[in-house]
Amino acid sequence: MKKQTGFTLVEIAIVMVIIGLLLGAVLKGQEMITNARAKNIENEYNGIVAAIYSYQDRYRALPGDDNKADRFTDITACTDLCGDGDGTIEGVFGSTANVESRLFWLHLRNAGFVAGATNNQDQPNNTLTGIIGVSTGLTTADISISGTFVAFTKIPQNIALIIEARLDDGQSASGRIQGLKNSDNSTAANYATDELYNLFFTL
Question: Which pLDDT tens digit goes with each residue over 80-107?
Fold first, then answer.
């Protein structure tokens, strides 16, 4: 009769320790990726702000609102490609029409402050596959922004929570960063549910 063998308690303990270490490494890796994604959004915002201020410093105008943008080679006439010079960026931030919120990107590209073709008005994608949009003033039943803002769409819940905690007050309806649900632009309720959100950073 053969003697039955099995794992000793020491061997089982060693296996459990190894499994624990592997799980810890995986979770830590996921946390690092999540933090990096949040940081990428922050860096994109800072880059847009720097581009706006650089444009204003050089041309004494707000990109998109610039009523003398025909100074650029690829903007031959102001009929449709210049703003009205009133100090605001008009139009919905995600618009597909020929409005100042899209001319914003055309002007920055022509000035060389944002990458892309100089005849392209399209909003760029953010690192999380949504878009980056800019406009002035946004009022809904849930949030109110009076000044110019930079919008980032399709931000996952965990990223939204990190950004709010790191840069603002953690509240979706107050502070310099406010948010709405991406699905229907309804209240974000402090990002309480696992879904995508639109974040609005006030300049």
Answer: 999 999 999 999 999 999 999 999 999 9
Contact at 8 Å (CB) between 196 and 156? yes
DSSP helix/strand/coil, 203? coil
Burial class (CB within 10 angstroms; exposed 0-12, middle 13-18, buried 19+) of 128:
middle
Domains identified in the chain and CATH numbers: 34-202 (3.30.1690)
102-121 pLDDT, tens digit each: 999 999 999 999 999 999 99
DSSP annotation of 125 reads B
| Short-list 100, 125, 104, CA closest to 113 | 104
Residues in the chain: 203
Report the C-alpha gap between 155 and 165 in whole angstroms: 15
Q: How many CA atoms lie within 13 A of 59 on its CB side?
A: 24
Task: Give the count of alpha carbons within 13 A of 115, CB side only.
Answer: 4
Q: What six digits make up the tokens of 68?
A: 């003398």
Beta bridge partners of 187: 180
pTM of the predicted model over 0.70: yes
Q: Starting at the earlier edge strand, list the strands of the sheet with 132-139.
A: 132-139, 144-156, 196-202, 177-181
Q: How far is CA 58 from the centre of its chain?
A: 25
